[in-house]
Amino acid sequence: MPETALRERRLEALRRQGYLVLCVCSVAVHAAIASGELPQGNWRAALVAVLSAALLPATLSRRVSAHRLDMLVVWCANIGASCFLWDFAARGLTLGARESLTVPLFFVIWFGLLPLKQAAVRGGVLYAALILLVL
Known about the structure:
- Keywords: Membrane, Transmembrane, Transmembrane helix.
- The protein is mostly helical and about 140 residues long.
- The chain contains five helices and no strands.
């Protein structure tokens, strides 16, 4: 097996491991948040936990290509950003640790996996929505 192909396989395996760790952590964190918020009727964290759990089989499957897995992660980030904005507005626009941790994660995913223009559009839309909500 050529050196380049071996390097690409190792990189793909490393990416899959990273996605697996991110998904498991996301499920754990959002399930913990949901356990406190579900009794009050806020189910958004539970939705994000379910979305993260739904990615787990794809991260473990070799039938899902690395490119397709990247796009699934991007779509989950898009959905997660929408849920984040919805939750942010529903909680009365309070800024806290959740926002400080969540927003940069969307940017890391978008700018790490998408072409620059597509990532910049998503980031610009997210910031514009946050500005509109706050104002």
